[in-house]
């Protein structure tokens, strides 16, 4: 019997045959209106949902899907998936942690280079007939701080250390015993030791607003911030103020609090580089993340353990 999968992700159409070829029926609903309509029209037959962390799946939607058995999240973050509602129903949740890490790490380094070397500004100037000669810092030998040394953070560290000869420090919930990088016990300590600070941690309550005024002041006027993690990790008002007052050198952001809305204050600044949450998007990453979803679905519906389960809270009594 064919299993119906509701797909809420908007960037993987080309790779959906990977799922469909395994006898899953896909309902594609990438916009809010299509999503609501699909749940209303087909809620009684949907057994699996494919989503992203920022898109999530909410308690009221889970309640409207009486046959739902598994939620598959592309990427590592699952901040807007209601894990408690899933746990209460015995619904399995999986993610794609690490699958798109090389793509995200590439983008993080591209943002860092663009920001520190002033690539967008110089490009714009040349296109306007100007020929600026601006002194910009180099990356070689500098101190790189990574907030969140998971799969993505490790890929960034490898590129920074081996490609640019940078000294790498990091902050995690716990120090890792499998790396030689320097561990910092707090985000503020990490910022203080860093020339460049890259945020690679997932979203959620545990990482919310780790980067505030104190951390930004610790980074200092010659420091640069890159965020390819989640917008919620940063207090946006504090970041805007630090950028406006030049208390940090600049910021490159691929993630924001209320995507796709980006604060006008960030757009107006000359010391920012902004991209549209595309760090994890590459043909290789898209293929591999969809393959991971297909593999998890196949394992689950065959009665075997899924490959990448997300830990759920205990069911509410």
TrEMBL record:
Q: Name one GO molecular function term.
A: hydroxypyruvate reductase [NAD(P)H] activity
Residues forming the D-isomer specific 2-hydroxyacid dehydrogenase catalytic domain are 12-310
Task: Give a Pfam family name.
Answer: 2-Hacid_dh_C
Pinpoint the D-isomer specific 2-hydroxyacid dehydrogenase NAD-binding domain residues: 109-279
Query: What GO CC annotations are associated with the protein?
Result: cytosol
Q: Which InterPro entries match?
A: D-isomer_2-hydroxyacid_DH (IPR050223), D-isomer_2_OHA_DH_cat_dom (IPR006139), D-isomer_DH_CS1 (IPR029752), D-isomer_DH_NAD-bd (IPR006140), NAD(P)-bd_dom_sf (IPR036291)
For this UniProt record, give its keywords in alphabetical order, as a comma-separated list. NAD, NADP, Oxidoreductase
Family per UniProt? Belongs to the D-isomer specific 2-hydroxyacid dehydrogenase family.
- Protein name per its UniProtKB record: 2-hydroxyacid dehydrogenase
- Source organism of this protein record: Pseudomonas veronii
